[in-house]
Write a structure and sequence with these properties.
There is one protein chain. With about 200 residues, this protein is of the alpha/beta class. It has one domain: Rossmann fold, CATH 3.40.50. About 35% of the residues lie in helices and about 25% in strands. The strands form two sheets. A seven-stranded mixed sheet has the order 5-4-3-6-7-8-9, sandwiched between helices. Helix 1 packs parallel to helix 6. It is globular, with a radius of gyration of 16 Å.
Length: about 200
Amino acid sequence: MDKSNGKKKLKISVFISGRGTNLKSIINFSKKKNSLIEVNLVISDNKKAKGLNFAKKNKIRFLIVNYKKKNIAENKILTNLKKCKIDFICLAGFMKILSKKFINNYKGKILNIHPSLLPKYKGLNTHKRVIMNKEKFTGCTVHMVNSKLDSGKIIFQKKIKVLKNDNEKKLEKRLLNIENRIYPIAIKKFINFNL
């Protein structure tokens, strides 16, 4: 049993669909001396997700799930989460919407990171909408997941200025670096207050 300061480490699962930079940042955080988490399982709906390389490199179990039949996919994920005794879930660029039934199985134990200052700009194409609306500020938010899209309790938010020469790509790149920095901070905060 892995312990940190006499406390049992919490087992987490990270869900990804793409490049996995937030997964990498969470894995790095889990390896820090006093970290209270260990990443035990990575779930992806995309077998070509670059982020799976981080799981392989760090010898973390991963599961690729075909989402053609959502119900079957979610049951398979839940079975594996229970098998690995997962304490909570971090969604990190996971591009599927979880069902109410799934969320109820891990009620209050699912976090997500979203590239906007929620409650503004829920859903997709956030950077495009921010630029079109000539917003002066944007940011990213780690929040708890409930059955409404991007609507759960906010754990941590970071605000940045939208620069004059920002386009979608530039803004996304700058925000991604901030996402990678704040997700571990939010996890720590979440553990201290909720678990």
